[in-house]
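DATA CLASS: polypeptide
GOAL: derive structure tokens

***
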Amino acid sequence: MNYKQKIESHINIIKDKLFHQEYNTKVSNSSVLSGRLSRLIFLSSLDAYYSNEEHKDYINNAIKKEIEFINDNAISQFSIDGLAGFVHGVILLSNRTEIKNIDQDFFKEIDEHLITLSKFYLDRNNIDPFHGFIGIGHIILLRIKKDPHLLESTEPLVAQLLSIVNDIIDNEKKDEIDFSLAHGLSAVLRFITEYGISSSQIEKYKDFISKLCFFILSHKKQNRMPDRINTEEGEPTFAPLRWCHGDLGICYALGKAAKAIDDDEIYTQTALVLDVITVFREPEDQELYSATICHGTLGVAHVFSKICTIYNSSNVLTATNYWYAESLKLLNSDVAYNYVDNDKNKAELTGTLNGIEGVGLGLLAHINDGDECLDSILQL
């Protein structure tokens, strides 16, 4: 069995496990990040890869159950575990196939709700990707691609976001500044870069993007990027390899921004950090105990593979191949598709971040460059 066949065999095992499980809406989590919608995204991505629609009825029946569940229950508004995460998944699915029970009136109502929710979060300076504006912002970007008229409604929101971040940069008022891709300023950088590209206004936001990049890079220590810093004590906190925390995700955001605004200095300074982290080895040294996306080897491998599209570096390519190989070792071990935490507790979870669906999406993304669902869910 060759390498690709080994990957496909795991994908097929995951498909059989998920397709034959009851679609249980008793658990209150409809999100694509950590809940049930991730299963539908995986099955839809699988159908796109194999060019069939085997799971179409399953997906439509599941969406119907989700809408009934949401109508009958009070759920959170967050991307991580609630309505925003559900909407994100539905948009990705509807971009690929026709979804029954979902029409233009549904999206019109959702668009209005997303704009209102964005304003609510920004008024409270909540820009977190999982629990605040940035997560909603990326969903709005998906909708703008379908309905460019939404752009006008989002411009005041983006202006408010820039004001919040400029205040952080100029005054460093916060006790702690987070630079990470999952919760911090790198997430803002990714959003505003993509917003500038999607709205054909990258020149308008070029100065802000440059300012934010150099602010992040100004905290570099010995060619490492801190995950966060205590502004009172000036003490940086570094993270092991993760897509979500620390150098790796930050480098990805900086590299994408450097390419978008054509800034050689940002590009070069980021490459110095990559020179350090691409030679990190041994999963346990990096506290990576499972092949999951979040806090797992597949998330690391996937982001390194994305960095390969920015930097023509043999070190980055070697790191990419190494972490995919380590992922395969874990999948072939008794860890299999489980998430293993820092206390070595092991469980097979649901969701893109820590669940079996994320493992499936990570493997599919590895062998199918055309599938961008995982990138969208992770806001890459």
Q: What stands out?
A: The beta strands are 176-178, 228-230, 235-237, 339-340, 346-347. DSSP finds 15 helices and five strands in the chain. Residues 27 and 35 are 9 Å apart (CA to CA).
